[in-house]
Amino acid sequence: MTRMLIVGPQGSGKGTQAKLISEKLGIVAISTGDIFRENIKGETELGKEAKRYVDAGDLVPDSLTNRLVEDRLSWEDAASGFLLDGYPRNRTQAASLDEMLSRLGVSLDVVLELTADTEELTQRIKKRAEIEGREDDADEKIIRRRLELFEKETRPMIEEYASRGLVKQVNGLGSVEDVNARIMDALNS
To answer: How far is the first Cα of the chain from the last one, in angstroms, to the nearest whole number?
Structure first.
C-alpha cells in the first residue's frame, strides 16, 4: 500500500507522471486540478467559485480545496493507497491533510518532488495551452505568477516534509519515459 504526494511547479509533468505511477503501483491518482476543471466545465457551484480564482491566476482557497480532498480520500478506491497531485500546496493544507489522514488512521509514505528550470516550465506550459486548449495556461504573466506562488507557498511545505524524511527529488525534464524511469528508481530505493 502506498500513500503519496507528487509535487512540483506547474508544468513539471506531475499530471502525466501521476497517471503512469498510479497504473504501475495500482493506486488511484487524485488530481485537484482535474476535479476543479471538471467542476468549472460543468458549471457547478464549486466550479463557479473556483473559476474566479483560476482566471485571476490565484490558487483556490484552502477551505474549498480541503473539503474537496477530504471527501475524495474517503472513497473506497483510496483505501488501498493513493497519489495526490496538486494538493497540498502549502503548510496549512499539509496540516489539514495530516489531520484527514490521522482520522483515516493512515499516514504518508513518500512525497515525490519533480524539479525543473523555470524557463523550460514556462515554454512547456504555453505549449500545453496550445495543444490542450487550456485557457488558464495561455497567459505568460499568469504562468509566472503561479511559478512564483509555488516558490512562496509550496517550497516551505516541501521543506517541512523533507525534515520528516519523506521527500524524494526527481528531475522532471526529459522524455516522459525517462522521467518515469527515474521516478520508479527513486520510489524503489
So the answer is: 16
Tell which residue, 151, 131, 148, 152, has the closest CA to residue 140: 148
- What string of DSSP letters covers 81-107? EEEEES---SHHHHHHHHHHHHHHT--
Residue 136 has pLDDT above 80, yes or no: no
- Neighbouring CB atoms inside 10 A of 27's CB total 20
Judge whether 171 and 181 are in contact, CB under 8 Å. no
List domains and CATH numbers for the chain: 2-188 (3.40.50.300)
Catalytic annotation, residues: 14, 89, 128, 134, 146
Distance CA 149, CA 91 (A): 13
> Could you tell me the strand order of the sheet in which 2-7 lies?
28-31, 81-85, 2-7, 110-115, 167-171
Residue 151: DSSP 8-state: I
Q: What is the pLDDT of residues 123-133, one digit of tens each?
A: 888 888 788 87
Q: What is the pLDDT of residues 109-118, one digit of tens each?
A: 999 999 988 8
What type of residue sits at position 148? E
In the numeric block, which cell numbers belong to residue 161? Answer: 516534509
Q: Apex CA 161: angle with CA 13 and CA 120, to 5°?
A: 25
Copy the grid coordinates of residue 50. Answer: 473556483
